[in-house]
Amino acid sequence: xxxxxxxxxxxxxxxxxGESILxxxxxxxxxxxxxxxxxxxxxxxxxxADDKPFGGGPGMVMKIEPVWRALxxxxxSPEGKARAAKIVLLTPQGKRFxxxxxxxxxxxxxxxLICGHYEGVDERIRQMADEEVSxxxxxxxxxxxxxxxxxxxxxxxxxxxxxxxxxxxxxxFERGLLEYPQYTRPAEFKGKKVPQVLLSGDHKKIxxxxxxEALKRTKERRPDLLIGVKSxxxxxx
Length: 237
Ligand code: ADE
What we know:
Elements: E1 2-7, H1 14-17, H2 20-27, E2 32-37, E3 50-51, E4 61-62, H3 64-76, E5 86-96, H4 99-106, E6 110-115, H5 123-128, E7 131-134, H6 144-155, H7 166-170, E8 188-189, E9 192-193, H8 203-221, H9 230-233
Parallel strand pairs: 1-2, 1-6, 5-6, 5-7
Antiparallel strand pairs: 3-4, 8-9
Helix pairs in contact: 4-6
């Protein structure tokens, strides 16, 4: 997968792309991630990428020209030319990002992420995007952190990125449930014991316990997720 990020704050991505899963995915050649400074497509001496809103009002609005020019150039770039790109604008007004969307995006060959300006983007930028995505009902100062969150959630789903493919199968949301409780050594810490069943070596019992715990935890914390799960697992009540 090729991911192009259009941003006003390219430095924000340096550490995130150099660590952990995103780094590993690039090293394995499973994801190519390129960060582009939108100011490189501005045309004035001040490299201004935003301007005052027409009609007045507070704040600045992200301009259309740099984004348009960047998209035109990226679409023509030799590395990405052959791959149809899904253009995603990160904005609090977008559709809420979830695991289902992450899976859908993980199947794309190319994503172009536009990091929106916190004070707003020219409405015509929205029209250039295929989808608008929000990472939750709160406002961050810019779309960079949402772009990182989206990228992390998507890239780890690309086959081969995670070492142990099993870990995706049991994690939260994969089965429509939150993940069961996990423990590691020591078996007892300051009187707090690991459930006996996990030490029993009985794999069938462990699997049953985990499913029951996942259901219990989901019911307690996220009952909304259980709508539609009943038929799959038979005991959501
Ligand atoms: N930009 C600012 N807040 C955002 C959010 N919640 N999701 C996506 N982009 C944003």
